[in-house]
Design brief:
InterPro entries: WD-F-box_domain-protein. This is Sperm-associated antigen 16 protein. One of its GO terms (cellular component) is axonemal central apparatus. It is a single chain. By secondary structure, this protein is an all-alpha fold. The protein has a domain at about 15-95. The protein has helices at about 15-25, 30-45, 50-55, 60-175. It is rod-shaped, with a radius of gyration of 57 Å.
């Protein structure tokens, strides 16, 4: 038969034998399907009933089948969404643990930095107390160095005088 343009393919009721065949295929009952088809075509061949006698499947059954298919599809989607949600949850927990780890490390670093700053301030104060003593020691060193230089100059002069006097004495004794 030729389909009219007024009705879409989904609106045309399904033949009874097609409905049963599709049902058996969906359940995977292929031996039962073979038996059904053999008997079905045998009855039609014998004329026990005609295609008009069998009629069409009521739309309720077709609609139930469509709803069942949609329900199965939605269940698959639900499972996929559950898997995706579990993966996202695991990733979130992992990220949270990493965040906590880095936050803890940051706090440790801040504590260590503060401790080092306190140590530096304490050492600066400690060495600042040595500065006047260091200045005093430097001045003593400079003074002692000057005195040493003066003493060595005086010694050199004294040695020259002694040498000069010894030379004069020798010249007087020899002469």
């Amino acid at each position: 038969s030729v389909l009219t343009s007024e009705k879409s393919v989904s609106e045309i009721p399904e033949a009874m034998d097609d409905f049963f065949c599709n049902f058996l295929v969906r359940l995977g009952m292929f031996r039962t399907l073979d038996c059904f088809q053999t008997e079905w075509y045998e009855f039609i061949q014998r004329g026990v009933f005609t295609a008009k006698d069998t009629g069409l499947v009521p739309t309720v059954y077709t609609r139930n089948q469509q709803l069942e298919a949609k329900n199965m599809c939605l269940k698959k989607d639900l499972e996929n969404y559950k898997l995706a949600a579990n993966k996202a949850k695991e990733a979130f927990i992992k990220m949270q643990k990493e965040c906590d780890f880095h936050r803890m490390r940051h706090k440790q670093m801040v504590q260590e930095k503060n401790r080092l700053i306190c140590d530096i301030k304490r050492l600066k104060a400690h060495y600042a107390s040595y500065e006047p003593a260091l200045k005093q020691l430097t001045e003593k060193y400079q003074t002692t160095l000057r005195q040493k230089m003066l003493t060595s100059l005086e010694r050199d002069r004294a040695v020259e005088q002694v040498t000069g006097l010894q030379a004069a004495l020798r010249s007087l004794e020899s002469g």
